[in-house]
Structures are given as structure tokens and as C-alpha cells.
């Protein structure tokens, strides 16, 4: 993995030409894993759950969420071009923009990013992998930022290529693997390789 994944300059150059890209799996596949956790909020919340889509990039995850009726979605990326691309994708799909877009750094989140609103569910689609390229300190800053933006009872669901992404001391979360997704094989005798979807609850 290129070390530049943790640098904003890398993403700026990439998003100059990239208009859409899905990390690891399609948004539909990711949503099939997280939707049971989203739907748990329906009986007790007047409105749909408050969702933070962290490192939204050029994914169409916000469109998949919106198509299922989840409108209280805040899409965050620290590269302004990614925010622009996200709005363009939503506009193209629905004819308007109803989810929120915020330029912010996932390692320095504050609850002010959404009028002091905390979130029921934080999701990231391999953003944790990119930030981990910056080392343990950056990773722990992200974890701390996510924790302070979670509402009481809130959870973080993270998709990663690594089987040990959250095996780190000082992590302020309990962690469980909720899905192992096999990667495509190019040859029949290729080894079994998986992506991992983690559920994290604050401790």
C-alpha cells in the first residue's frame, strides 16, 4: 500500500480525475452488512438513525443509504474535491442533494461538525486503512475522534482489508468481526483472502 494514502495531497491529485470508486466491496454489499444495525433504531427513534459516513471519498454509499430512506447522513472527507464529487453523485442519482457534506479530518473530528449533533452509527469503508498508513498515533486519533462523536449507545462499523486492524492497545472500543468477505480469486488454487467488517462499541 502506498505510504501516500495518509497524505491529503495524494487524495487531491487522485480526485482531480476520479469521479467514482468503491473500496474493497460495493456499497450495496457493505450496506447489506450494516443495514441490520441501522434498522435496529427504527422502533426507538422517531426519525432514522443519525449516520456519519467517514471518509466518503467518491463512493456512492450515501446514495445507497438514501435510496433506503436514510436521510440523516453526514458525509465527511478532508479533501474538498471528494465532497464535491459526493454531491455530484447524489445530484445525478436523485436530482437534488438531501444528505449533508462536510470537509473535516477524521483524526480531528468535533461534534460541532453537525451542530453539536452526535451520531448513532459511524461507518467507514476502508478509511481506517488509509489513516493507518500514518501510523499508530494517527489511528488512535481517529478512534478517539469517532468515540467522542458517538451518541449514547452508538456504534462504529468499519470495513478493512486487515484481519488485525483493531488489534491495538489503548483502543477505546470493544471490537468484534461481524463479517468476513472473500476476495475474488483469479486462479482456482489462489489462497482464501478476506476483507473484514468490524463492529466497535465504546468502552
From TrEMBL:
UniProt-listed Gene3D superfamilies: Vaccinia Virus protein VP39
GO term, biological process aspect, one: methylation
Keyword annotations: Methyltransferase, Transferase
Domain Methyltransferase residue range list: 46-160
Source superkingdom: Eukaryota
Pfam family, one: Methyltransf_31
One MF annotation (Gene Ontology) recorded for this entry: methyltransferase activity
Transferase among keywords: yes
InterPro entries in the record: Lys/N-term_MeTrsfase_sf, Methyltranfer_dom, SAM-dependent_MTases_sf
Heme among keywords: no
PANTHER family on file: SAM-DEPENDENT METHYLTRANSFERASE SUPERFAMILY PROTEIN
Family named by the database record: Belongs to the methyltransferase superfamily.
Protein name: Methyltransferase domain-containing protein
Native organism: Daldinia eschscholtzii
Amino acid at each position: 500500500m502506498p505510504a501516500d494514502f495518509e497524505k491529503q495531497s495524494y487524495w487531491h491529485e487522485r480526485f482531480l480525475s476520479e469521479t467514482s470508486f468503491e473500496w474493497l466491496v460495493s456499497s450495496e454489499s457493505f450496506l447489506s452488512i450494516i443495514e441490520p444495525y441501522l434498522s435496529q433504531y427504527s422502533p426507538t427513534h422517531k426519525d432514522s438513525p443519525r449516520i456519519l459516513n467517514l471518509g466518503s471519498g467518491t463512493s456512492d454509499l450515501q446514495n445507497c443509504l438514501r435510496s433506503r430512506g436514510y436521510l440523516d447522513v453526514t458525509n465527511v472527507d478532508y479533501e474538498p474535491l471528494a465532497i464535491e464529487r459526493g454531491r455530484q453523485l447524489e445530484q445525478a442519482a436523485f436530482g437534488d442533494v438531501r444528505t449533508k457534506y462536510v470537509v473535516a479530518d477524521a483524526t480531528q473530528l468535533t461534534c460541532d461538525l453537525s451542530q453539536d449533533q452526535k451520531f448513532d452509527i459511524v461507518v467507514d469503508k476502508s478509511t481506517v486503512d488509509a489513516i493507518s498508513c500514518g501510523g499508530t498515533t494517527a489511528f488512535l486519533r481517529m478512534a478517539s475522534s469517532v468515540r467522542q462523536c458517538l451518541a449514547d449507545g452508538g456504534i462504529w462499523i468499519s470495513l478493512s482489508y486487515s484481519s488485525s486492524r483493531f488489534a491495538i492497545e489503548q483502543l477505546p472500543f470493544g471490537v468484534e468481526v461481524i463479517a468476513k468477505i472473500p476476495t475474488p480469486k483469479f486462479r482456482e488454487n489462489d489462497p482464501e483472502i478476506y476483507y473484514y467488517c468490524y463492529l466497535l462499541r465504546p468502552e
